Amino acid sequence: MNSVDRIAADLGHLGIASGDVVMVHASLRAIGPVEEGAVGVVRALERAVGSTGTLLFLLGARDDLSWVNARPEPERADLLAAAAPFDKDATPADPEVGVLAEVFRQLPGTVVNDHPDARFGARGRQARALLAEPLPWDDYYGRGSILERFVRARGKVLRLGADSNTVTLLHLAENRVDLPTKRRVLRHHKVLTSSGTPRIRTVTCLDDTDGILDWPGEDYFTTILQDYLHHRAARLGTVGAAHSELIEAGDLLDHAVAWMHAHFSPD
User: Fold this and answer.
1) Are the beta carbons of 264 and 177 closer than 8 angstroms?
2) Beta-strand (E) ranges in 69-155?
């Protein structure tokens, strides 16, 4: 079993330093057994970035009624009427983001923002600045978003054995790339207002589920990441048992926008 000290040392060897702002995508299974489990991994991450660093996780929200947004728009409000509302402090993280994100969310001191689709959790010196209001409700991964703030903070993307299509930052590239058309969606959510009253709200945004356009073969996020790792500078190593990458967020963003422009623009 890996100790917290061992995982922290592995993170340091990968290139994480005191004061870094790090967005984490991780597979606990890939990392392997760690003392204190998921909490131990968070402790190691905090040790690696130090008292002046910041950790950021995408949380999202578990939504057992997500199928409602596949129904015709006039039906959605009625279908959501009896649903429990999204509560930023109580609704579990989206299971697809992994167990570590849910454990991170529940730790005392984690700061969480109020959006059912773009809920993040953060800990550390810049946590409140990254998640502070105002944040966009629509196009929540675009201008003024947490992702944009993360890049401005010279953030780094840390991938610890995560799936190759798991790079949330690339949604900011989708918003920035200049294309004549991008696929958009309209969603309905039942949420708690600031006064604690449940309300149904709509969200309009680029399609961050199926992509901003059709792409043959594997998910284009995977293709962009592999292209980046092949052509650009990333720190590669092993954390626990997980093959891991540490990537400068701004450099990855620039690469992704250029890649999308080259491959998505009409001939």
Assistant:
1) yes
2) 111-112, 120-124
Within the chain, strands assigned E span 21-26, 54-58, 111-112, 120-124, 156-160, 184-192, 198-206, 235-239, 242-248
Report the residue count for the chain. Answer: 267
Kindly state the greatest CA–CA separation across the chain: 55
Pick 29 or 193 by higher pLDDT.
Answer: 29
Tell me the pLDDT tens digit for each residue of 135-179. Answer: 999 999 999 999 999 999 999 999 999 999 999 999 999 999 999
Q: Are 260 and 173 in contact (CB under 8 A)?
A: yes
> Is the pLDDT score of 232 beyond 90?
no
Distances (CA, A) of 32 to 48, 212, 237, 243: 18, 35, 15, 11
How far is residue 261 from each of residues 174, 178, 180, 181, 222, measured CA to CA in Å?
10, 7, 11, 12, 16
Give the separation between CA 59 and CA 105, rounded to whole angstroms.
Answer: 7
d(C-alpha 113, C-alpha 59), whole Å: 10
Strand partners, 188: 202
Query: Can you tell me which residue has the tokens 């950021």?
Result: 56
Q: What are phi and psi of 111, to 5 degrees?
A: -90, 135
SS3 34: strand
Asked if 204 contacts 186 with a C-beta cutoff of 8 angstroms, the reply is: yes
